[in-house]
Structure formats: C-alpha cells, structure tokens
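Tokens for chain A. Residues wanted.
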C-alpha cells in the first residue's frame, strides 16, 4: 500500500496524458508553450479568479507573491507556526520579520483570536495556510484587517478545489498560491504551482517577475526577477487532470467519509474537524492521538504507511528559531499523524488501515 497512490492516477488517465505529452514533445514548445496559457485560463475559470500566473513551484509562487508587494527589510509578516516551511522560507529569503501565530487544535488552522493579538502597525502581510485541504475562517480574518492595508495571502498548496462558504480557495484572499507537487489534489509530474489574484497591478508584476523581470521586449529587464516558469510539459499533464478535478475531489471526500464513519467510535483518536460551510479538498487525512507512538508501532507491525505532518513547529526549526509560546502548534506536532489517503485508495487497503487504527 502507498501512503499516497499517484501511480494509479497516471494509469487511469494514461491515454489522455500520453497524447497531451506527445503533442508538446512533437512541437518542442517546452518553455511557455500554448498549453501554459490554456492551463492558466482553465485555472481562472475553475477558481473564479480574474488573473492567474503558473509558476515553477508553490514555493516560487509564494516568493513571487511577496516580491510583488515591494516590501522592505524587517516589514512584518504573520505566519502560522504549524505549517509547511515554504511561507517562512520565502519571508526569510526576503529578510522580512516573521511573527509566528498559533493555530486551532480542532482544525489545525490559524486561530483568528490569536492572530488579532499579533497584528501591529508594522504588520504588512498575513499568510494563512489552508492546511490539509481546509480554508481558515476567512470572514473573521478579513474583519480583523479591514482598512489596515494588510495584504492577505492564502497558501493554498493543499486546498485547490476546497470551498469556504461557497467561495473557492484561491479566490478569497488578495493573493493565493497553490502547488502542483505530484501528490497534491491537482498534481503534475514534477514541481509546479500557480498564483491567483484579482488585482491587475499585482498580477502584472508577478507575470513579469516570473520570467526574469522581462516586461514587453525580449532581453529587456525592468525588474530583478526569477526563472519561475511552469514547464509546458507539466501544463500539458495538468490540462488533462483539471478536467477530472471534480471527480478527484468527490473521490477524496468519499474516502474521507469512510474513514469518518469507521473510526468515529475510537475514543483514542480525534478525527479532523471540518468547519460548517467548508468543503475540504482533503489533501491529507490527519488524525490526532495522544498515543501516537503506540499507533506508529501498530502501523509498522501491519506495514501501514503513514506520515507525520509536521514533527516540529516552524518557530523551533533551526533557521527560523524564535521564542514563541504557540502551545497548540507544539501539541499538534506531537499528536498528528496522517493516514494513507488518495482518490485511489482501494477498499481493501482502507479497511486494513481502519483495522490497524482500531487496534489502538
Ligand atoms: C502548505 C504548503 N505550502 C507550500 C508548499 C510548497 O509547494 P511546492 O512544493 O510546490 O513548492 C507545500 C507543498 O508541499 C505545502 O504543502
């Protein structure tokens, strides 16, 4: 059994993917070929966002988003302490001052009450992370920053296809960034990502920065940019998969429902909580347990793959060390464990996982 089964997905869409790939290879249009624009157009349609720029990865998308904001050294950016490293990494690269905020135990998401206490006059950006496929409480967060000029960025690497009160993830914050890492809800065959915004000026800047700061004319560079383009080959694969995204999300939700119903009576674990009016893209199925060591032993014995997202909070990681007392984040790093999960998790394997968890 695979922790995330990406190979079956290829086999199921093989005919369309191979055809799409061959088309690119035959034309050798490898850099910013027509598939890239076509994909951006599909991504805009799906999310409802006005503008979209595909990128070489989600991390590069976050870097471009911050770079487009003309921030100064030591400008403050608030980031959840329990998250993947990318938001902290790009903020540190740009020499911004990071303030880590705690999250909510039930949802793993940024806690608006704790966020309120971290906002100061120096706060320029808040990056929320829609972790494990669920959006945070955007209404409360947006209320907190109304008329402050603070820019809200959604790290939507894990939430492509998710909804918050009928709004699509990637079209709620000022700027949103998703990832097409192979295991994501919309996954390519390598690295890739996309930035979304409804603000024309931000879009234009990101569009230029993605391609060496080159504006209209080739080899004329008006900004210090990056090479952060999505490969045409990846776009060709994603063009096939985006047509299947609703089915992929439905399958994820079905598998999640099965875990919920078969694990609900286990008092030694806590199932993920999806907030009312949220539709999760279930990038992961992450449970919590005070008996994690014991569960890991059971999984090892029964050869059940698992992953710990994330074993250490960001404020305790070597390059980002700060004295933070984000206790909930720290507890989550000790209690969380993610179960095998993908749209293609078969019944037999899922039952094996359920049986093993219920041995706890
Ligand atoms: C929450 C989160 N943010 C950012 C990223 C970075 O995306 P990428 O791997 O495409 O750079 C990831 C991907 O692993 C992620 O899960």
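Reply:
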């Amino acid at each position: 059994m695979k922790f995330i089964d990406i190979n079956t997905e290829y086999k199921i869409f093989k005919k369309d993917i191979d055809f799409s790939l061959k088309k690119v290879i035959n034309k050798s249009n490898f850099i910013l070929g027509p598939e890239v624009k076509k994909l951006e157009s599909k991504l805009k349609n799906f999310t409802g966002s006005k503008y979209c720029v595909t990128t070489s990865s989600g991390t590069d998308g976050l870097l471009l988003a911050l770079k487009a904001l003309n921030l100064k050294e030591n400008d403050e950016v608030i980031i959840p302490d329990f998250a993947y490293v990318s938001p902290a990494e790009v903020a540190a690269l740009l020499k911004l001052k990071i303030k880590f905020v705690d999250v909510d135990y039930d949802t793993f998401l940024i806690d608006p009450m704790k966020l309120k206490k971290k906002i100061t006059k120096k706060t320029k950006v808040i990056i929320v992370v829609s972790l494990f496929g669920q959006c945070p409480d955007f209404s409360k967060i947006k209320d907190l920053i109304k008329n402050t000029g603070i820019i809200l960025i959604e790290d939507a690497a894990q939430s492509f296809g998710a909804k918050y009160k009928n709004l699509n993830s990637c079209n709620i914050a000022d700027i949103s960034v998703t990832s097409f890492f192979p295991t994501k809800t919309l996954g390519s065959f390598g690295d890739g990502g996309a930035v979304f915004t409804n603000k024309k000026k931000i879009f234009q800047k990101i569009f230029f920065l993605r391609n060496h700061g080159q504006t209209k004319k080739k080899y004329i560079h008006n900004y210090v940019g990056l090479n952060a383009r999505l490969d045409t080959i990846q776009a060709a694969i994603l063009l096939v998969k985006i047509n299947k995204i609703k089915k992929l999300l439905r399958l994820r939700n079905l598998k999640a429902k099965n875990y919920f119903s078969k694990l609900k009576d286990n008092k030694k674990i806590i199932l993920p909580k999806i907030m009312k009016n949220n539709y999760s893209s279930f990038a992961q199925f992450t449970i919590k347990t005070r008996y994690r060591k014991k569960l890991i032993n059971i999984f090892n014995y029964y050869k059940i793959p698992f992953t710990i997202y994330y074993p250490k909070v960001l404020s305790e990681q070597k390059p980002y060390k700060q004295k933070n007392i984000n206790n909930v984040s720290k507890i989550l790093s000790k209690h969380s464990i993610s179960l095998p999960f993908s749209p293609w998790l078969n019944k037999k394997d899922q039952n094996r996982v359920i049986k093993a968890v219920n041995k706890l």
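The chain has two domains: 7-242, 245-357. The chain is about 40% helix and 15% strand.
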